[in-house]
Amino acid sequence: MKNYQLRTIITLLAFTALVAFPIHTKAQKNFTKGYIVTNDNDTIQGFINHQKWKVNPKKIAFKKNGQSEVEMFKPLEIKEFRVGNSFYTGQVVDIETSPVATSRLEEGPALNLERDTVFLEVLFKGDKSLYHYGTRKGKDNLYIKRNDSIELLIYKNYYITRFEGKYQQEKNTYKGQLAIYLNNCKKITGAIEDADYEPKDLKKLFVEYYTCLNDPPAFAKKKGKKEINFGVLAGMSITYADFYSNSLLYMDKPEFTSSTNFTGGISVDIIFPRNNKKWALRSELMYYSYMAKGEYKDNANVTEAEIGSKEIDLTLLLRYHYHLKQSKIFANAGLMRGYSFDLTNYKRKESLVDGDVTTGKAIDEKPNYKRGLIAGIGYTHKNISFEARYMTALFDPFVTVGSNIKKYLFVVGYTF
C-alpha cells in the first residue's frame, strides 16, 4: 500500500507541475471583442488577443472574425485600439529610463531619455488626457496631451553627494506641469502637490479634476474588479491511515484498511482580474469522514483496533487556470485547518488462551484539531468542474501514537 501511495503522490505532483507551468510557454490566446482605428480614422470591429498587459505591448494580434487570419499591428501602423477596459494609442514619445531601485539610483537630476515608438495606455481621454507607459524593469512614465502633442511628465529619483554622504532627492517637475495643465480648477492645487508619480495617484487627481468641472471625460480607465463566485462540491474521499508506536504493537504492526466515504462542501472563489483571470484565491468548507480498521495477532491475543472520525475542514487555496477554447485546466495548492468530531477510538482484545474479551480505547487521547497541506488538479467546463486532490497532515494530530493519514479526493463542483 505504501508503494502505491508513493507512486500516486509522485504522479499527482508531476501532473500538477505540468499544468501550472506548461511546456508550451507561448502566451495563451484570448481573442476578445474589440476594435482598431486605422490611420485613416476607420474603425474596424473584430477580436484582439487580450493579455491584460502589465507591460505595454509592442504589437497586437487582431482578426476580423473567428475564421479570419490573424493580423499583427505595431504602433503607428494603427491609430489606436481598444479591448475590454484596455485602451492604447500608437505614439512616438520620450521614455525616461533612469533606474528606480534605491540601491541603483544615479547621482544628479539629469534625465536619461530615449525616443521610441510605443503603444501608450490611455488612462483618461478628453479635454485633458493622461497616458501611461510601463517598462519591463518596473518604471512608470506618465504623459499628458498638450496642443496635439504627447508631453512626458518629468520625474526622477536620484541622489546627491554632500559632506561625504549620499542624500536622496526627487526631481518633481511633473507637479508644475500638471498645475499649468489643470489650471482651470483651482480646487485641486493641494492634490497636485500631494500626488506621487504613480498611475493610481494621477488617475485619482484626474477624477477630481473632471468632478470639479462636472464634465465627464470621453474615456476613463476603470479599476478591474475582483470576481467572486460561489459553488458547491460533492464527491468521494479515499483515506489511508498508518500508525506507529513502540509500545502499542496493535497500532504499529497492522496494515489498516482504507476508507472510502462521501465528501462535500461549499466554496468561494475570488478571481483576480489581471493576467486574464488566471489566478484565484479559493476558500472551502468541507465535510469528510473515515474509518480505519486493523488487526494484530501474537501468541497470546488477537487485537482489533478501529480509528475514525467525521471532520469539518476550512481550506484556503491558490488556484491557477490554464485557459483552453471553451474550458480551463487548473492546479491549486494550499493549507487546511480541520476540526474532528464523532470520534471512533475502539479496541477489542481477545485472549487465545481462555477466550476472554476486553474492550476499550485504542489510543488514550482525543485529537480534535489538525492542520495539513492540500494540492489538486482539475478541469472546468462552463459551470462544472472535476478535480483530483491529495491531502496530508502537516502536524501529527496524535501525541502518544505517530500517524500518517492521507486522503485522495475526487470531487465534482458546480459554480453559481
Explain this structure.
This protein has helices at residues 2-20, 173-181, 189-194, 199-213, 249-252, 274-277, and strands spanning 31-37, 43-49, 60-63, 71-73, 80-83, 86-96, 113-125, 130-134, 140-146, 149-152, 156-162, 165-171, 219-220, 227-244, 259-271, 279-297, 301-323, 327-351, 357-360, 369-381, 384-393, 402-415. It has 416 residues and is mainly beta. The protein folds into two domains: 86-220, no CATH class; 225-415, Porin (Beta Barrel). It is elongated and about 105 Å long.
Q: Major beta sheet, specifics?
A: 11 strands, antiparallel
Number of domains: 2
The assigned structural class equals mainly beta
Distance between the first and last residues' Cα: 39 Å
Strand content: over 45%
> So, CATH architecture of the largest domain?
Beta Barrel
* Rg (C-alpha, Å): 31 Å
Number of distinct helices: 6
Main CATH class of the largest domain:
Mainly Beta
Number of strands: 22
Q: What is the string of helix and strand elements?
A: HEEEEEEEEEEEEHHHEEHEHEEEEEEE
Low-pLDDT runs = 19-27
Principal-axis shape: elongated
Give the structure's gist in a few sentences:
The chain has 416 residues and is mainly beta.
Q: What distinguishing features does this structure have?
A:
11-stranded antiparallel sheet; single chain; 6 helices; 416 residues; Porin; 2 domains; 8-stranded antiparallel β-barrel
